[in-house]
Design a protein that fits this description.
It is a single chain. By secondary structure, the chain is mainly α. The protein has one domain: MFS general substrate transporter like domains (Growth Hormone, Chain: A, Up-down Bundle). The chain has 14 helices and no strands. α8 runs antiparallel to α11, α9 crosses α11 and α10 runs antiparallel to α12. The longest helix is centred in the first third of the chain and has 41 residues. The protein is globular and about 50 Å long. The mean pLDDT is 84.
């Protein structure tokens, strides 16, 4: 009984640490994002074409996530997370001293290595701490913590930008992420998934790979072109875009825990089916509607619905073999970034050639339709009774 009590106390300590490091990372990264565009325009005078090259090069480490994670297989997930967050912290913290374009590119590619490693190991730690119970609920809670951090960061960046230089603000962002790295190193064995394989590519996980690839396609299309259309086609001012970002983070903090609990309750197939039906409406709306107020509503709707995509990770966690979770998530990140490299270029070229901004959104509609068909291959499972949806820990 005493041993069990100590185990529960240690697990609760890990949950608190992990929530703290999730908040700290999300805060630092949101501060970075909040000032980056202004920095590259006002200080380095980066052109749109240079920004496009930067964005493409910054996504390259995402393609290498699986082999990098495989190379570091000797590190348990908390240590791998700590190393990844330190890399991210160093690159982001140094951004303010970049004096030319290619130095900026080098810093961005460097921190991107850490960011993509962290993106693949973070859900693995969450699901390990969950111990196989209520994965959706816990993923939703951590997503809500991240959204709350973004809210605080948006307000903080707006206040501090008037009083401090870009160098100091980037240093603040990097320092906050470094603090999250230190907390990662303090996590115990509860946060590990056991011995893991270096690189995993199994036929039985092929549906997960497909869903991850398609989700990467649809997400990159919307994240690349939705805000661009609002700004370029409809002349949306910066303050309005910041307000939309604030609304997105606020609603995300509210929606994610609820979506997580519903995913545990009704299963991934039902929730992902609903997700893709609604997302299809968002893409069709962007391609057909002309009232910018309705486009604002669709922009926010997409952000809120994104929490439904955690069902893909919950599905993997349900079918994965012991030790396969982290390398499979890393492979999923790699698959996702194959899409990240291809889709923005394809959509941009077709937009330019056909002179029609609606083209990328119709492509996205087609991708969502394929996702909807793929989701129907997820085996049905009976909804869990409500009394089984609480484990009492975390």
């Amino acid at each position: 009984m005493i041993l069990q009590g100590r185990k529960l106390s240690s697990l609760q300590r890990d949950w608190i640490l992990f929530a703290g490091l999730t908040f700290s990372f999300s805060f630092g990264f949101a501060v970075y994002n909040g000032i980056f565009q202004n920095f590259i325009r006002e200080v380095l005078h980066v052109s749109p074409s240079q920004l496009g090259v930067l964005e493409s090069l910054r996504e390259v480490p995402g393609l290498l996530t699986a082999p990098i994670a495989g190379t570091l297989v000797a590190l348990a997930e908390p240590r791998l997370a700590g190393v990844a967050l330190l890399i991210c912290a160093l690159g982001i913290g140094a951004t303010g001293i970049a004096g030319d374009y290619w130095t900026l590119v080098a810093f961005n590619v460097f921190w991107s290595v850490g960011f993509h490693l962290w993106s693949s190991v973070s859900p693995a730690i969450t699901l390990s701490l969950a111990g196989g119970r209520e994965g959706g609920r816990h993923l939703g809670r951590m997503s809500a913590v991240g959204s709350l951090a973004v809210l605080v960061a948006l307000v903080t960046a707006k206040v501090l930008k008037a009083h401090f230089s870009y160098k100091i603000l980037f240093f603040l962002a990097g320092t906050t992420i470094a603090i999250s790295a230190l907390m990662a190193f303090l996590l115990s064995s509860h946060a590990t998934s056991g011995n893991r394989q270096p690189i995993i590519l199994r036929r039985e996980y092929s549906l997960y790979y497909l869903l991850t690839f398609l989700e990467g396609c649809r997400r990159q299309i919307f994240s690349t072109f939705a805000s661009y259309v609002l700004i370029l086609v409809y002349g949306t001012p910066v303050q309005t875009m910041l307000s939309l970002a604030f609304v997105n983070a606020s609603l995300g903090a509210i929606a994610a825990p609820t979506v997580g609990r519903l995913t545990d309750r009704f299963g991934e197939r039902r929730m992902l089916t609903l997700y893709y039906v609604l997302i299809a409406c968002v893409f069709a709306g962007y391609a057909t509607l002309r009232d910018v107020r309705l486009l604002y509503a669709l922009f926010v709707t997409d952000s809120v619905l994104f929490s439904f995509s955690m069902g893909i990770t919950v599905y993997l966690n349900r079918i994965v073999h012991k030790g396969d979770l982290t390398p499979s998530l890393a492979m999923g990140t790699t698959m996702n970034h194959v899409a990240a490299v291809i889709m923005p270029v394809l959509g941009g070229v077709l937009w330019k050639v056909l002179d029609d901004y609606r083209i990328p959104f119709w492509i996205g509609f087609g991708v969502v339709f394929l996702s909807l068909m793929a989701v129907q291959r997820i085996p049905r499972r009976s909804p869990l009774p409500a009394e089984q949806l609480h484990d009492g820990v975390g």
